[in-house]
Backbone:
């Protein structure tokens, strides 16, 4: 598939390891080349936000994240959190106001300056902390972007305190959206994880998987175009390639210079009736996927012995 966001003429291939099941872009752009795929436009132009000023959707998202740290919050005494890939520091700042000691890792030059707590501007595995120091490490939608995921798991095991928690969110390679529907943000997403590959990463670093939450409470990766995929593969018996993916309604309006309205909606239905029908069925399809642990997003909680 191409880089659908910035370089539509550049095509990338995703493969799956026959031995362990890990998915990855092959060949991958080098670390030096990756800066090209993260232009300023990639980052939302949003200033850092104080907890009291968070919009409702962000507050709901952060509260969903906090749920994975609930047992640590019930403990007495100081608790220390490291948020890896902190962006503008909004979640880490949210946790600071909940009484946590907070540090963060953020390598992007486009992120805002964060004065409230220490921020390491290095890759996680290179930060100058080498002993158990943190009760919890959170890594939200970061591991699919890095060139060396194993180094991140290894570093987490090194700097977590005994009985500390590693909480991380990744896209789910078991999902239709990831595996079949071109839902991954390639080439910014370099690796695609299944629960089996996650278990292997944890086991090799002495971390014990406590739980997996497969769902959309934090981020969404909806199975867009699932109906056109089934029509193409099950009814027509043909492969589903990127060429078969219908334009989204927004892209359709942009390509044809149309504005929102009933007439435009009718034109879009004529262009891709499956896209309109599947939107009506989305809630039921997503509910089934979550029950089967095949939704596009998974959050894992692991414990250091």
Residues:
């Amino acid at each position: 598939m191409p880089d659908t966001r910035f370089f539509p003429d550049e095509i990338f291939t995703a493969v799956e390891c026959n031995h362990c099941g890990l998915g990855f872009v092959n060949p991958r752009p080098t670390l030096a080349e990756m800066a090209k795929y993260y232009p300023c436009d990639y980052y939302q132009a949003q200033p850092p936000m104080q907890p009291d000023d968070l919009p409702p959707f962000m507050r709901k998202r952060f509260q969903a994240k906090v749920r994975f740290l609930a047992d640590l919050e019930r403990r007495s005494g100081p608790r220390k959190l490291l948020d890896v890939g902190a962006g503008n520091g909004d979640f880490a700042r949210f946790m600071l106001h909940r009484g946590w000691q907070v540090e963060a890792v953020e390598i992007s030059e486009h992120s805002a300056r964060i004065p409230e707590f220490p921020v390491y501007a290095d890759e996680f595995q290179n930060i100058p902390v080498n002993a158990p120091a943190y009760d919890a490490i959170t890594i939200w939608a970061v591991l699919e972007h890095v060139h060396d995921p194993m180094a991140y798991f290894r570093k987490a095991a090194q700097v977590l305190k005994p009985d500390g928690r590693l909480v991380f969110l990744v896209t789910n390679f078991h999902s239709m959206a990831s595996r079949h529907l071109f839902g991954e943000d390639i080439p910014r997403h370099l690796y695609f994880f299944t629960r089996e590959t996650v278990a292997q990463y944890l086991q090799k670093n002495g971390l014990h998987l406590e739980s997996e939450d497969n769902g959309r409470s934090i981020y969404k990766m909806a199975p867009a175009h699932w109906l056109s995929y089934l029509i193409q593969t099950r009814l027509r018996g043909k492969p589903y390639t990127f060429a078969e993916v219908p334009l989204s309604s927004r892209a359709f309006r942009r390509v044809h210079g149309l504005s929102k309205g009933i007439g435009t909606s009718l034109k879009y239905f004529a262009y891709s009736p499956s896209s309109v029908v599947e939107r009506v069925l989305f809630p039921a399809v997503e509910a089934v996927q979550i029950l089967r642990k095949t939704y596009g997003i998974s959050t894992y909680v692991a414990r250091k012995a």
Observations:
- The chain has ten helices and ten strands.
- Residues 52 and 252 are 38 Å apart (CA to CA).
- The chain has a mean pLDDT of 95.
- The chain has two domains: 14-219+294-304, 226-289.
